[in-house]
Design brief:
- Helices cover 31% and strands 20% of the residues.
- It is of the alpha/beta class.
- The strands form 3 sheets. The protein has a 5-stranded parallel beta sheet with strand order 2-1-3-6-12, sandwiched between helices. The chain has a 4-stranded antiparallel beta sheet with strand order 8-9-7-10. Strands 4-5-11 form a 3-stranded antiparallel beta sheet, with no helix packed on it.
- Strand 4 and strand 5 form a beta hairpin.
- Helix 3 runs parallel beside helix 4.
- The two termini are 30 Å apart.
- Bound molecules: ribulose-5-phosphate.
- The site of ribulose-5-phosphate (5RP) has 18 residues, from helix 3 and helix 5.
- This is Ribose 5-phosphate isomerase A.
- Its EC number is 5.3.1.6.
- Keywords: Isomerase.
Length: 232
């Protein structure tokens, strides 16, 4: 059984990836960047998955040695199935990082976190000297929040406090993210909840202001990171 089939038996969503052709085209671009000995930070989501697949093929064909720093258990599992060795930020530093995004504005600010992995994604992105955001054409927006809510990961004990503080920032709506079966909230890898937040307008300082609310672990606003945007 090939990698893709092995992974699909565990991660069903990999069979139905939206805009797959565009995502594969941009995945091929990032695979070109891989060099022997690279330590690579790996984001989460379907575009990152396709990029990891392209990278793994190249690594195998050219017998390269690379080390991956995953941003979720899912990516870690995928690396294991593909035979890519992994490490953590405690033992290695990424030479570069790649990831997808939900929205990219004209100043390269991002909304991320539809997969709920923004805490680890921000940690690894910030630890890398170079970051590449891989996006299909649907991800470009004229302002952040145009299509998606901004996710905020919250310690369960702090949900009411965070909702109250967010209201002061001009929030239109903050919805607890629910599991697909709607039988309970989404619980992140760290045991937290996610509030999907719609603002009247996302201002420059919001990432820091949201992070400063006690109980907020991280938000999916990535403002001022200036990653390189790769697209088709
Ligand atoms: C996960 C993320 C993803 O990068 C983002 O949601 C984009 O996902 P996809 O590549 O599946 O469109 O931030 O936390």
């Amino acid at each position: 059984m090939g990698w893709e089939n092995k992974i699909a038996t565990t991660l069903q969503w990999t069979k139905e990836i939206s805009n797959r052709e565009q995502k594969e085209a941009v995945a091929a671009k990032i695979a070109e960047r891989v060099r022997d000995g690279d330590v690579i930070g790996v984001g989460s989501g379907s575009t990152s998955y396709l990029a990891l697949l392209a990278i793994s093929r190249k690594v195998k064909e050219q017998k390269l040695s690379v080390l991956a720093i995953p941003t979720s258990h899912e990516v870690s599992l995928t690396c294991s199935i593909m035979g890519l060795p992994t490490s953590t930020l405690l033992n290695a530093r990424p030479d570069w990082y790649f990831d997808g995004a939900d929205e990219v504005d004209p100043n390269k600010n991002l909304i991320k976190g539809r997969g709920g992995a923004m805490f680890a994604e921000k940690l690894v992105m910030k630890s890398a000297p170079e970051s590449y955001i891989l996006v299909d054409s649907s991800k470009f927006v004229s302002y952040l929040g145009e299509k998606f809510a901004a996710p905020v990961e919250v310690d369960p004990r702090a949900v009411h406090l965070v909702e109250t503080e967010l209201a002061k920032l001009g929030v239109k709506e903050a919805q607890m993210r629910m599991a697909v079966a709607k039988d309970g909230p989404v619980i992140t890898e760290a045991g937290n909840l996610i509030l999907d937040v719609r603002f009247n307008r996302i201002e420059d300082g919001y990432e820091k202001e949201i992070k400063s609310i006690p109980g907020v672990i991280e938000s999916g606003l990535f403002m001022g990171y200036r990653p390189e945007i790769l697209t088709t």
